[in-house]
Amino acid sequence: xxxxxxxxxxxxxxxxxxxxxxxxxxxxxxLAIGFYASTNTAVATAENDRRITLAQQAAESGMxxxxxxxxxxxxxxxxxxxxxxTVLATQLATAMNGTRNMGADVVGMAGNxxxxxxxxxxxxxxxxxxLQTYALTxxxxxxxxxxxxxxxxxxxxxxxxxxxxxxxxxxxxxxxTFDYAIASKGxxxxxxxxxxxxxxxxxxxxxxxxxxxxxxxxxxxxxxxxGGDLNILAGATANVINGATVDxxxxxxxxxxxxxxVVGDPNFPVADPSVFLPYATNTWVAGAPLQQNIVVPPNxxxxxxxxxxxxxxxxxxxxxxxxxxxNVKMKGFIVFEGAGNSTVNHMxxxxxxxxxxxxxxxxxxxxxxxxxxxxxxxxxxxTMSGSSDSTIKGSIMVGSFNYTGASNxxxxxxxxxxxxxxxxxxxxxxxxxxxxTATGETNQPTVGLTYASYFAPKPSTYQEIxx
Length: 467
Description:
Shape: elongated
Number of domains: 2
Structural class: alpha/beta
């Protein structure tokens, strides 16, 4: 009886073992299937992430291309806002067409939208396989432009795309014209006399720069003495005659080797004298010894005599020939209308000129923020031939400048800037000196000038959008 019971218990144990084995087999099979499915899902997810990343990289690369190109465009001063997009399209086409990135494609424009490439069914390849590509559009948005970059990855039957946008705003290109004591679009001639730094000025402050790309853009005669270096454009030359002195050096070979420099275009500003007209609230009166905030009508040809004083702004309409005799006091600034040219507009200083800040009085308060210049007359010629010393605060910006005086001229924190592009734009032919305390670099005019511009990114506007 006891043996029978043991047999029954043993039989039951063998059944439990088989059942447990089957349960574990089912569990391991389920886990294996789960691991397989999970691995497949992870691989698919990783592949999708990779394709998305490659498409995003393509879009980012396209945006980087535009950041580079927009940083190097030069929108001319005073370009009408409606024409900026057209000028931009032209410059982008010049810079990009025919490059490896563009291949046979070109920059195009339709309406007020620039397309890169022009054929909107094409995209620009990032690699030799052509799997990563991008396309760009540029549109106007108020005073800004908006760049959209769309990147695509075509490594599978179902290409994936990503798009980003960012705004770019107009920024003035910094000018170097005020870095020089003399900056001229035309030829500079120092036949005789001294152009140098005043007592206490930095060595070499009296540097010259000609923007004329031709031989003898700067000429220094045998009796000429220039206190700083000579700066010219590529393709131009500086002609220095034996006997001349440049930055304390008299050896012509050393001057040419060490003190003549080839520089880039310093970005001359464009003057807009019209902004000062509203401040000229009175009309010039012939013979009046004191005149304040005056406008000089065309063909008045006024003459100012020793002891006369001009306060505030003197706005001269074109054409006019203005003559100064004796010691004329200027407590403010002279502005010449932008119309006409230096053939019909003249300023002739045969005495001395003393320029000082605006006087007290409420009628001048609105102009107290104006600074940086004493004469803004890009359409007029200026000659100085007086026999008494002159002191001028700020820059002189004229069509042409000619100094033949028998006295010294002191220019305090200013630049003589000439806008005429031909020969003899600036001429010094004197036995005396023109002395600079400093150039206008740290005293640039606050109003009345505009500069060439480029487009700078506005990082806060970056966003991802639907392709």
